Amino acid sequence: MASRSTGARVYLTLIGLLLAFVGGLFSWLMWRSFDRARSIDDWPEVPCAILESDIESRRDDPAWPEEMPQEYRFRVVYRYDWEDRALESTRYRLRGASWSSSPAKAEALVDRYPQGTVASCRVNPEEPSEAVLEGESKAPGYSLWFPLLFLVGGLGVAGGAWRKRRDP
């Protein structure tokens, strides 16, 4: 069997390193997201007063006719005390409330956090002006295996391109 040419080896190495780079990049991004979500669980929980709780709506293009669909999201303003300071926040989650074509999700959150009630929020002790009503999903950590496959596979392709073939 003929050995691979240097050009073929370089090509396979570049493809393998590209796969490994993309896998590594997505692994890092997913780990960072998981780690941030996990760290929110360690933030102290304090009572907070819900000052405003309603549904915000928007259209992608203001020039669209009224019958075109809108998007909706939960909007909240709450006050909490941290080390004898009264602070306010508008964050439902660290990334905020997502937009949806159905108002049902936002309505459920308005029912869960009605105006004038007291709920609990988590406060970042390193940056007390940063508070959230709910933590983030840890799903990126549970899915981390997938981009790691690309990282390991890409390194395998790059390494295999330079391994000598055995004669049968």
Number of strands: 5
Strand content: 15-25%
Order of helices and strands: HEEEHEEHH
Radius of gyration: 25 Å
Q: Would you tell me the structural class of the helices and strands?
A: alpha+beta
Runs in which pLDDT lies below 50 for 5 or more consecutive residues are none
Description:
It contains four helices and five strands. It has 168 residues and is an alpha+beta fold. The protein folds into two domains: 1-41 and 135-168; 45-61 and 68-132, no CATH class. A five-stranded antiparallel beta sheet has the order 3-2-1-4-5. Helix 1 (6-40) runs antiparallel to helix 4. The longest helix has 35 residues, at 6-40. The mean pLDDT is 88.
List keywords for this structure.
38% helix; alpha+beta; 2 domains; elongated; 168 residues
Summary, kept brief:
The chain is of the alpha+beta class and 168 residues long. The chain has helices at residues 6-40, 104-112, 139-142, 145-160, and strands at residues 45-58, 71-82, 85-89, 118-123, 131-132.
List the helices and strands and how they pair.
Elements: H1 6-40, E1 45-58, E2 71-82, E3 85-89, H2 104-112, E4 118-123, E5 131-132, H3 139-142, H4 145-160
Antiparallel strand pairs: 1-2, 1-4, 2-3, 4-5
